């Protein structure tokens, strides 16, 4: 029975490793200086959570639609084009989502490791040491 559970656990850990490898790594390389003032409040993209970034994104999208509808050729906010702010926020949200997914997978992996039988843990550790000695 323990052997059967150990195999299930190892299979699940392999699935987690596969998912971790499939996570697209995005580096946050902003075009803007990440400090935008909107309605008298200054926001730093580096310090905002996902909800606050989404709020800013929605507001900036409203600005962008109004700019197009009104036929305004050029409009900058805090020294950068609205499109640059939108792109930076989207990129930051993607990085946050990737980090959350990685953290979730690591937590699952840790939980699975605690479920392994002591015999299987010993076997895996011995295999690891043997591979180091090769």
Topology:
Blueprint lengths: L1 H21 L12 E4 L2 E4 L5 H21 L5 E2 L2 E2 H34 L2 H16 L1
Antiparallel strand pairs: 1-2, 3-4
Helix pairs in contact: 1-3, 2-3
Helix content: 55-70%
Query: Major sheet: order of its strands?
Result: 1-2
Form type: rod-shaped
> Would you count the extended β strands for me?
4
Poorly predicted runs are: none
Distinct helical segment count = 4
The average pLDDT score comes to 91
Structural class category: mainly alpha
> What's the main sheet like?
2 strands, antiparallel
Order of secondary-structure elements: HEEHEEHH
Overall radius of gyration: 23 Å
How many structural domains? Answer: 1
Strand content: 5-15%
The span between the termini is: 32 Å
List the keywords.
4 helices, two-stranded antiparallel sheet, 134 residues, rod-shaped, two-stranded antiparallel ribbon, mainly alpha
Summarize the structure.
This protein has 134 residues and is mainly alpha-helical. The protein has 4 helices and 4 strands. A hairpin with a 2-residue loop joins strand 1 (35-38) and strand 2.
């Amino acid at each position: 029975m323990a052997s059967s559970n150990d195999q299930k656990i190892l299979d699940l850990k392999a699935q987690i490793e596969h998912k971790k490898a499939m996570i697209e790594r995005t580096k946050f390389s902003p075009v803007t200086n990440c400090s935008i003032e909107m309605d008298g409040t200054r926001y730093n993209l580096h310090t905002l959570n996902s909800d606050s970034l989404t709020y800013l994104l929605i507001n900036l999208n409203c600005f962008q639609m109004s700019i197009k509808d009104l036929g305004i050729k050029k409009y900058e906010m805090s020294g950068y084009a609205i499109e640059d702010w939108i792109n930076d926020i989207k990129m930051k949200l993607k990085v946050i989502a990737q980090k959350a997914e990685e953290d979730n997978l690591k937590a699952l992996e840790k939980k699975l490791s605690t479920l392994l039988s002591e015999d299987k843990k010993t076997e895996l550790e011995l295999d690891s040491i043997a591979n180091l000695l090769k």
